Amino acid sequence: MKPFFVVQTSYTFRSNTAPMHISFVELLLLITLVASALMAGLFFAYACSVNPGLGRLADRGYLSAMQSINRAILNPVFFAPFMGSLVLLPLATWAAWSSGGGWLLAATGMYFAGVFGVTIAGNVPLNNALDKLELQAASEEQLAQYRANFEKRWNRLNLVRTVCAVLTLALVGTACICQD
């Protein structure tokens, strides 16, 4: 009797010279690397282009743009790598423990604490509070004060998660290179 479900542990790709085999662990590492790269790229692009661009806006425009961006980012395209990394990193750590698992364990800790943890404990509460702000009813002084309390803290937290996301990517990349 044939089994109903079989997990293929090796995949073959054809090139001009010879077939290339990629194991399940290598495929898992590749997917984990891509998810880590997407998150590092998102936070890096935000830190070096979006934040400086938004910083040039007047208070009402800045706060309105942040509200809009914070609402727009809550979508499956963002959540797939953001939440997916929470599953992929520990799974890759377990699967590749004998050859590069230490690097992946460090990447998992870095991502959980420095990216996910900072986002959930820092940026999300700031975003939620900003979402409740009724910009049209606020005076210019209130907007300036709210922005002063929000912008510097949010950008500082984003810098922390940017650095942690880039370090996560570097650690996952190192684990990929160190595979036997």
Tell me the layout of helices and strands:
Elements: E1 10-13, E2 20-23, H1 24-55, H2 59-72, H3 76-95, H4 101-132, H5 140-177
Antiparallel strand pairs: 1-2
Pfam families: Anthrone_oxy (PF08592)
Keywords: Membrane, Transmembrane, Transmembrane helix
Transmembrane segments: 27-51, 72-97, 103-126
Report the helical percentage: over 70%
Low-confidence stretches: none
The tally of structural domains comes to 1
Give me the side-by-side strand order of the main sheet: 1-2
Biggest pleated-sheet summary:
2 strands, antiparallel
Radius of gyration from the CA trace? 21 Å
Envelope shape: elongated
The assigned structural class equals mainly alpha
Summed up, the helix count is 5
Strand fraction band?
A: under 5%
Keywords: Membrane, Transmembrane, Transmembrane helix
InterPro entries: Anthrone_oxy
Transmembrane segments: 27-51, 72-97, 103-126
Pfam families: Anthrone_oxy
What does this structure look like?
This protein is mostly helical and 180 residues long. The protein has one domain. The protein has 5 helices and 2 strands. A two-stranded antiparallel ribbon has the order 1-2. The model has no long low-confidence stretch (mean pLDDT 92). The chain crosses the membrane at residues 27-51, 72-97, 103-126. Pfam families: Anthrone_oxy. Keywords: Membrane, Transmembrane, Transmembrane helix. InterPro entries: Anthrone_oxy.
